[in-house]
Amino acid sequence: MPQKKTPYFELRSGAVDTLHFVVKTPQLDTLRTELTQRFEATPEFFAGDTVAIDVRRLAGGERVAVPALAEMLAEFRMKPIGVVANSEQTDWAVVEGLPRLDSHERRISRAPRESEAVPEPAAEPAEAGPAQAAPDTGAIASTIIDKPLRSGQQVYAKGDLIILDLVSYGAEVIAEGNIHIYAPLRGRALAGVKGKLDARIFCTCLEPELISIAGIYRTGEYALPPDVQGRSVQVRLVDDKLIFEPLGLK
């Protein structure tokens, strides 16, 4: 039949930007323990995010129960939309309700600096390079990131975290200490994630998707006051409430 143009809908090819939950063990109990430990301080961290279950890192004979894994991810408020698998895994990995997805990963990678180290994220994004984290050497050093963080990338620091470039929408910066961002923050920033109540976030251009200190958070759904939106700001916690204060930077 000839195609007739309509003003009411269009069909176009496109690509969906989603996180990959890269499975490296078939042990569901181990995965649950790791997920709980990682996100117990930030239960809203992946709330509502879509993920693709990526099983390509499993060893040759290993299989994971994909339906049970999908249910587990849903408990952590992620939304599985499909499975990324190689041809040998298709017969067991692709199940009803979770179609096989093609993944064209574009990695942004570089050799990590000594001051950077990022633990591998539980959900590895399609457009993210490997995350890096600060080394544990007794006195915890600050982690310094001097490259822009793109959508899907994540950085975790055991001490303070210093960002010298843009944090894009969909990027996430997490620290057990303070976070300093000398550039626009358009993604998510979570400081004091192990319960450090006096942690602070400093930013020279605040436009966040989410701000959190010690598990108390505020999302970008609620507009910030004009005197802090897009401006130089410090964020601190007072009586379980986030306080946004302008910084007198010229």
UniProtKB/TrEMBL annotation:
All residue ranges annotated as the Septum formation inhibitor MinC N-terminal domain in the record: 9-80
Biased amino acid composition, Low complexity: 118-135
Say which family it is in.
Belongs to the MinC family.
Any one Pfam family here would be MinC_C
Spans annotated as Disordered: 105-135
Q: Which GO terms describe its biological process?
A: cell morphogenesis; division septum assembly; regulation of cell division; regulation of cell septum assembly
Q: What is this protein called?
A: Probable septum site-determining protein MinC
Which positions fall inside the Septum formation inhibitor MinC C-terminal domain?
144-244
Source organism (scientific name):
Pandoraea communis
User: The organism's lineage?
Assistant: Bacteria, Pseudomonadati, Pseudomonadota, Betaproteobacteria, Burkholderiales
List UniProt keywords, sorted A-Z: Cell cycle, Cell division, Septation
Compositional bias segments (type: Basic and acidic residues)? 105-116
Domain of life where this protein originates: Bacteria
Q: Provide the function of this protein.
A: Cell division inhibitor that blocks the formation of polar Z ring septums. Rapidly oscillates between the poles of the cell to destabilize FtsZ filaments that have formed before they mature into polar Z rings. Prevents FtsZ polymerization.
